[in-house]
Amino acid sequence: MEMNNYSFQYQVVExxxxxxxxxxxxxxxxxxxxxxxxxxxxxxxxxxxALLQNGAIVTGxxxxxxxxxxxxxxxxxxxxxxxxxxxxxxxxxxAITYHNHNAESNKPVAPCGMCRxxxxxxxxxxxxxxxxxxxxxxxxxxxxxxxxxxxxxxxxKHDLL
Length: 161
Ligand code: THU
What we know:
CATH superfamily: Cytidine Deaminase, domain 2
Bound molecules: tetrahydrodeoxyuridine
Structural class: alpha+beta
Number of domains: 1
CATH topology: Cytidine Deaminase, domain 2
Shape: globular
Order of helices and strands: EHEEHEHEE
Distance between the termini: 28 Å
Strand order of the largest sheet: 1-6-5-4-2-3
């Protein structure tokens, strides 16, 4: 029997202010845009902001629906916007944050499983990885070097061949 192991390293930075200025500004942009999410059902307002290789900033928010499964997460709304407005321009870094209007929101949260699959596909599509910065309204920031690190043993286009 063979046993395999998967682990990855990530950085925990005390506050966004301690990040490099470009990363700090990206997180601040995500925090601002989170408030324009449409989240009347969950009250969980998510904001994402990405820096593209051409210097453009693209944002996304979660958009809920009375028919709950119809809603879309902030990360995937960002990816659709980036691919539409800036086709073939790679994402370099994506900041993701949230504000739970019903609870304290200082602990970073990580993308949901469906978004992890989309983030992975986007890395494959642009043939380069991108960093994730995860944080709440304030407090710790988790820095992950490659979005795909969040989805080991993944299903990709190579499995379809
Ligand atoms: N949500 C996101 O936008 N991104 C995530 O990675 C986690 C969840 C949204 C979906 C829903 O509108 C609300 O947060 C509560 O699940």
